Amino acid sequence: MLAEYGRIRRQPKEELADFVVRIEGQNNQFLDWVNQTAISNIDEHPQRFTLTVAHLDHRPENCKRSNLKALCAPCHCRYDLQPSSMFIKQQLKLERQGQLRLEVA
């Protein structure tokens, strides 16, 4: 399968050996290392992407599982930069500095 940027990628749950066999012999500039490396020398890299834990309500003290989500670093940053997220973070910062909340009923 070709990704949108032109590289061939592994399918979900595809073993590394099966992936190498599937792409072997294809003419692709990114695959030269496959043709030059023995299958036994290719190492698994289970930590290709580092996941971070995002607090969905932006309150670090709320560690309920329903409030936590594992995101890669770029997605975590995108989530934190949403306009609604930025407003919540600013409000929480003001509250920590002593700003009182207006309770609207």
TrEMBL record:
What keywords sit in the KW lines? Endonuclease, Hydrolase, Nuclease
The protein depicted here goes by the name HNH endonuclease
GO terms for molecular function, please? Answer: endonuclease activity
Q: Which top-rank group of organisms is this from?
A: Bacteria
